[in-house]
Amino acid sequence: MLHLDDIASHEEFFAWTGRLRTQVIEPLARGEQARYTPYDWRTRAFGAPLPLPPAPVIVVEGVGAGRRALRPHLARLLWMELPAEESWARGRLRDGAEQREFWDGWIAAERAHFTADASRPHADLLVLQRPEGYEVLPGPGAAATADHGVTLSDGFSAMG
Question: Among 110, 139, 80, 138, which Cα is nearest to 13's?
Answer without folding.
Answer: 110
